[in-house]
Design a protein that fits this description.
single chain; 393 residues; alpha/beta; 16 helices; 8 strands; binds 5,6-dihydroxy-NADP; binds zinc ion
Length: 393
């Protein structure tokens, strides 16, 4: 078991009507003037935004609104947010939405006091030293940003998608009302569950084989997400199943399922180039790549893939062939992705064949032109990245 440092400071307020606590929570964490940050239409249409505004007013908390965050959130919107915070004397950031809105808030938080351009933080050219506090009302279980230390932003100039991770990005509070996720379309629900499962799998598939408690938690998160999404797709207003998925989403990415493991993260790195370049949903991009990554790397630690096949996918173990069992597990996962409407190839994802030039460009960006590797189970070179993208095409 690897040494670890587990830090999950976010206050989670979970359940029906939990958004009614928002004004109180903002004040508890020192907010007097809030940037109320949200996405396109969903929070307006559902009435959630109006309820939040009324609640903040009743609590005597001033606010300025900034909507229009798009999936794969853009650095231009972040810069707009930073300007507003400076101009208006904002002291607290409140995200109403999913990973994209929360990540945009995190970027604003880092950029607010930083003297240079916020994008330099994502290029790892500098580190910010002072951050604004953030709270969120989560409307889609998926990215896990409500408890994570990460933020992923896309720069429209060059379509680069980069992350920046610091503990200061962990939300002060996360309000989660499963009822607020009833309005999610089936596709978004499935993309979210795929991302939740992948956050667990990125930590699960490692070289380490000796962290039983972490593995058992991870397998439970995976089995839960997998079984509950089927129920939710059949009945979108099934409160209990929506709630299981929502909590699984936070546990999958607050590092609990990574305690003691070195983790991998190659599929995420490879996917960020796909969603950066083709503006596709992150979860769907992960589903399109995972099977190819798994086949490419499984012999690095075949026992993990066997354990996954048996304990998560319910495959019967072939005691004569670990490879056969591992492959049956990968196939079962791909069949599951298809059953919830997810793609398992890039062609299914983008609706056309990807070109060799596009693959080369993604591999260049992902490897920083051959300078970096990604992944831990197997350290992937630029050539490995090209091979996996080609397997997934
Ligand atoms: O913009 P609106 O109209 O709100 O619509 C959103 C958006 O189109 C919609 N939606 C959200 N809640 C809804 C709803 N529609 C109906 N009813 C609701 N209750 O869903 C769409 C997707 O929203 P988005 O926030 O983009 O989804 P998600 O939470 O999956 O976030 C994806 C982003 O997070 C990044 C991804 O790369 C991607 O950019 N990630 C962030 C991570 C982190 N910060 O730790 C880790 C992840 O691995 C991931 O990379
Ligand atoms: Zn993810």
């Amino acid at each position: 078991m690897q040494d670890f440092n587990f830090y999950a400071p976010t206050q989670v307020v979970f359940g029906k009507n939990s958004e009614s606590k928002v004004g109180e929570l903002v004040k508890k964490y020192g907010g007097t003037k809030v940037l109320l940050h949200f996405g396109g239409q969903s929070a307006i249409k559902s009435g959630l935004l109006a309820e939040v505004e009324a609640n903040l007013k009743a609590a005597g908390v001033d606010f300025v609104k900034l909507g229009g965050v798009v999936p794969n959130p853009r650095v231009s919107k972040v810069r707009e947010g930073i300007d507003i915070c400076k101009r208006e004397g904002i002291d607290f950031l409140l995200a109403v939405g999913g990973g994209s809105v929360i990540d945009s808030c995190k970027a604003i938080s880092a950029g607010r006091y930083f003297e240079g351009d916020v994008w330099d933080l994502y290029l790892k050219k500098a580190r910010a030293t002072k951050y604004m506090p953030i709270g969120c009302i989560l409307t889609i279980p998926a990215a896990g940003s409500e408890m994570s230390d990460g933020s992923v932003i896309t720069n429209e100039e060059g379509w680069l998608k980069k992350d920046y991770c610091v503990n200061e990005f962990r939300c002060k509070f996360a309000i989660m009302n499963p009822e607020r996720t009833y309005s999610l379309p089936a596709w978004q629900t499935a993309c979210g569950v795929t991302d939740i499962m992948m956050h667990t799998m990125e930590r699960y598939f490692s070289k380490d084989d000796d962290m039983e408690v972490t593995d058992s938690i991870a397998e439970s998160v995976l089995r839960t997400a997998k079984s509950q999404v089927i129920k939710v797709l059949a009945n979108p207003t099934d409160y209990n199943s929506r709630a299981q998925i929502m909590w699984a989403g936070s546990l999958a990415h607050n590092d609990l399922t990574g305690c003691g493991t070195s983790g991998d993260w190659a599929t995420h790195n490879l996917e960020h180039e796909l969603s950066g370049m083709f503006d596709v949903s992150h979860g769907a991009g992960l589903a399109a790549l995972w099977g190819s990554w798994a086949r490419y790397t499984r012999n690095e630690n075949i026992s993990r893939f066997v354990r996954f096949a048996v304990n998560v996918m319910g495959v019967e173990q072939d005691f004569h062939s670990a490879e056969e069992t591992a492959e049956a597990g990968i196939k079962a996962m791909e069949a599951f992705y298809h059953s919830i409407g997810m793609p398992t190839s890039i062609k299914e994802l983008i609706g056309r064949d990807i070109t060799n030039a596009e693959i080369a460009e993604m591999a260049d960006k992902c490897s920083n032109y051959g300078q970096n590797t990604v992944g831990c189970l197997k350290k992937l070179s630029r050539e490995d990245m090209v091979n996996i993208y080609k397997m997934a095409r």
